[in-house]
Amino acid sequence: MKTIITSAALSLGLIAILPICAALAQDDALPAGFETQPVLKTTDTRDGDAIVWPDGTPEIVSVIGTIEPGGRTPLHQHPVPVYVYVLEGEVELRTEGGDPHTYATGEAYVEALNRDHQLFNVTDSDARVLVVFAAAQGQPTTVASE
């Protein structure tokens, strides 16, 4: 009889705790009327290299860049992880040793570390990108290439 009572108590306890566990396991605790749309989740750069975090005091730097039609960024590289989100238009990323890749509005990627690259606007309208650097305080986020 004791085994039956213990089993019943355990079952009732599990039934009572399951909704609590499910609520705690949610990845998002969003209020009603607010939703998110995932853009990018990765541990690698767009070229397949592991993202490596810089040593030192963390610092996030973000900029919005506008590339005119036919324009480009200078040839450069980044010693820190860089997240790029295309806000408007379409851009073509050309990375040393890799094939060109086109990104359109709403797409994102993580730049290659320490590899020369350029971003081109090959369309007839402005392209705008949000660029977020995960650096260490005092560390350069971009290095010009020769």
How would you describe what is shown here?
The protein has 146 residues and is an alpha+beta fold. It has one helix at residues 2-25; strands at 58-67, 76-77, 82-88, 90-95, 101-104, 108-110, 117-120, 127-136, 143-144. The model is unreliable at 4-25 (pLDDT under 50).
In a few lines, what is going on in this structure?
The chain has 146 residues and is an alpha+beta fold. It has one helix at residues 2-25, and strands at 58-67, 76-77, 82-88, 90-95, 101-104, 108-110, 117-120, 127-136, 143-144. Residues 4-25 have low confidence and may be disordered.
Q: Which shape, going by the Cα principal axes?
A: globular
- Which residues form runs of ≥5 with pLDDT under 50? 4-25
Distance from N terminus to C terminus (CA atoms, Å) equals 83 Å
Order of strands in the sheet with most strands: 1-8-3-6
The proportion of residues in beta strands is: 25-35%
Helical residue percent band? 10-25%
**Cα Rg:** 23 Å
Structural class: alpha+beta
**Number of beta strands:** 9
Arithmetic mean pLDDT: 85
Seen as an oligomer or otherwise, the chain set is single chain
Main sheet: strands, sense, barrel? 4 strands, antiparallel
Order of helix and strand elements from N to C terminus: HEEEEEEEEE
Count of discrete alpha- or pi-helical segments spanning 4 or more residues: 1
